Amino acid sequence: MLRRVLYDPGAWSAAAAATLLAGDFDVRPLPDGHPADASVVILVGADWTSAAAPNERVIGLVDLREPRPWPDAWHALLPEHPGGPALGKAVRNAFADLEAAADRGRLERELSELNAIGIRLSSERDPHVLLELILHKAREITHSDAGSLYLIEDDDRDGRRLRFALAQNDSLAVPFETTTLPLSCESLAGWVALEGASLHLDDAYAPPADAPFRINRSFDERTGYRTKSMLVVPMRTPQGETIGVLQLINCKPRFSMTLASRAATERVVQPFSARFVALASSLASQAAVALQNSRLYESIQRLFDGFVQASVVAIESRDPTTAGHSFRVAELAVGLAEAADRTVQGAYAALTFTASDLMELRYASLLHDFGKVGVREHVLQKAKKLSPEALERILGRVEALRRGLEIASTRRKLALVLDKGVQDYHAQAPSLDAELEAALADLDLSLSRVLAANEPTVLPHDTRQEIRRLAAARIDDPHDGPVPILTAAEAEILAIPRGSLTPEEFDEIRSHVVHSWEFLVRILWTREFRRIPEIARSHHEKLDGSGYPGRLRADEIPVQSRIMTIADIYDALTAFDRPYKPSVSPEKALDILRDEQRLGLIDGDLLDLFIGAGIWQRRSV
User: Fold this and answer.
1) I need a surface site. Which of 88, 206, 523, 586 has the fewest CB within 10 A?
2) Dihedrals phi, psi of 402, to nearest 5 degrees
3) From CA 393, how far away is CA 384, in angstroms rounded?
4) H-helix segments, 454-495
């Protein structure tokens, strides 16, 4: 196709010069307004004053003897009567300048686009989104109708293999299923991965005769698609390792167009230019770095997640009765946060949780009881009010008293025989036996009350009074004289009105929140996880300021901590493995949470979501 030259018909010098170019160029008079939609050279006379557009080059045909300034925007000045060769050379130089400017502009756009792509690739952490972005951008800058992405994986049994990780096609919507194939030279992607070099085919159906690879036509045969031009490039890291392969298919004149049929493919698809090969190779290198960084980030994330889970297991191993509690709380808390994020009405309609926010809440929930490492083990595992050793001492004391009562009764019988004779003994023995049985029954009753009081339930008032009476009572021992069933210290412990812990032990249990804070605050958290220590520390705070450890008011408690509070209370109430208290049904637990809400202790809006969205049913650990 001849390149177009326009001339100003009102300038005789331009019109005359135009006749010299006929046959070599598409020469036409300049239309009104001269809107050029392609690169053109314009021949003008001395009176031309219009500015030149970026896709225009102006050649002035003037009297060079005139002492006047000529426009700087003109590409060249020629005399009014130029020779044909000189004019032709000037026009060709003008077109060369237009092409160079177009190349520079295209290069600037491509560099700018590559930089923008690099920024997006480096900021994307989701590996699935990253792969989609890599393939789409590679197709976009090379005008590819379709493409696929392969990743190299290590296989313990078969060594390395290729995973068909992603496919895109602008002209054909087909479902995609990932699969694997051997890493060998029999496939295009395998050859490129092993050789570490790009592969460029003008027609995939006609590869070089000596090529070890062949295209698999099954997709084309099944769908009617026509795979024609192909560009396959390796994704190589700066260390020279190939970690994947980009496969680009069917280069189009414009990325926005689609290929409606095989005939359209044959007609418009063109080979990938050297420029597209360079662009694809550059993007593949950027993609390899981004993918490598994403894998490193994912590896660090898995490592940290493993550390957190191992820490939870280690802590819960000190208190096996609460095993699984932290994992269940994390599941419930994240579920409630997701429900709050979805809600479009109520107090939390504007609340949002990003993926990082949810991960932060999950870690805070998993680690919320980590401070129990600073609580003595026998306090953590205290199932009854008395320690097993203390109860054993009481049982031994009761048994000794039982033997003492029996010995005392036997001595009285012996003295009766010696003093009064056998006849009187037989007459009084039944009353002595009855007296012993009554004393032993009273002792057994006292022991049963001690055992009942030892349970971590709410202690009835009359039982508390009986414990005090037992501490004050004495039983005569034939060897030691008057002996108490209970010591004052034992009676004080048994008189605990609720639960199994003494006030000192309860304070020690509560201190785990502070221990958790002191541990978590030492970790150099990344920016997205920096609130974990505060979230974990505040999960025992109450909206009315009666919680611990900081007695925070409602506006001081993070919403994440309010969420965790509900999850923690619900799981503690319904846990079936707590030896110091029986579990309650889910319905009863929700009633108790409602009571807490009515007392102004927990967040009612979050509780409504917890119940309404069925989060309480989600425990799976």
Assistant:
1) 206
2) -60, -50
3) 15
4) 461-472, 488-494
How far apart (Å, rounded) are the C-alpha atoms in residues 39 and 101?
A: 11
How confident is the model at residue 120, as a pLDDT? Answer: 74
The Cα–Cα gap between 214 and 207 comes to: 7
Token code pair at residue 368: 């919320």
- The alpha carbon of 211 is separated from its chain's Cα centroid by a whole number of angstroms, namely 44
Token look-up 């994986």 returns: 153
Instruction: Output the pLDDT for position 311.
Output: 86
Tell me the angle at which helices 559-574 and 604-612 cross, rounded to the nearest 10 degrees.
60
CATH 1.10.3210.10 fits 319-378+508-617, yes or no: yes
Q: How far apart are CA 474 and CA 484, in angstroms?
A: 4
Q: Record the tokens describing residue 486, joined without a space.
A: 């209970």
**Tens of pLDDT along 431-463?**
888 888 888 888 888 888 888 888 887 777 777
Query: And the tokens for 64?
Result: 């060079």
If DSSP codes are grouped into helix, strand and coil, which group holds residue 347?
Answer: coil
Q: What class is the 126-296 domain?
A: alpha beta
Q: How far is it, in rounded angstroms, from Cα 459 to Cα 463?
A: 7
How many CB atoms sit inside 10 A of residue 245's CB?
26
Question: pLDDT higher for 331 or 399?
Answer: 331
| CATH class of the domain comprising 4-104 | alpha beta
pTM for the model:
0.67
Q: Maximum distance among all alpha carbons in the chain?
A: 168
What is the residue type of 25? F
